[in-house]
Amino acid sequence: MANLVVHFEIHASEPQRLIDFYSALFGWTFTQFGEIEYWSIETGEGSIQNGGAPGAGINGGLTRRGGTAVPEVGAPINGCNIVVGVDGDIDAVFAKGLELGGLAALPLEDMQGIGRVGYLLDPDNNVVGLISPVLSDGTDQMPMQSAG
After folding, report:
1. What is the pTM of this model?
2. Could you read off the pLDDT of 51-64 as tens digits, one per residue?
3. Which residue among 40, 76, 120, 147 has its CA within the 20 to 30 Å range from the CA of 24?
């Protein structure tokens, strides 16, 4: 393994609120470890632990945020954020994130050569990115490479 990211963690002031948010938005499943306030996150098929090839996707964890302060909207990022690859209609997923209590950190935008990208603040003001290789006009920026 060549220094690949293999796990992520989300910090939550109210863990159940974020478990509900991410379960509804992405279909992730959460499993608590005994009595401690730590939940493993299964992100779905194709993740490393679910038979996916390394680099196809990773799973993570959710833990209670240390301290009492929720990050303020507009505050600089303290730590890292994650970006989730979206299959299908990224605009619908972004809108669903807003309906579930998230806020738009950066609205969706087409980025030539990359795809459609936007960022939400989850209900605990953590930054989470969304990316799709498909632009708003339907152009795929990452067509399958032919084996050659």
Report:
1. 0.86
2. 666 557 899 999 99
3. 76
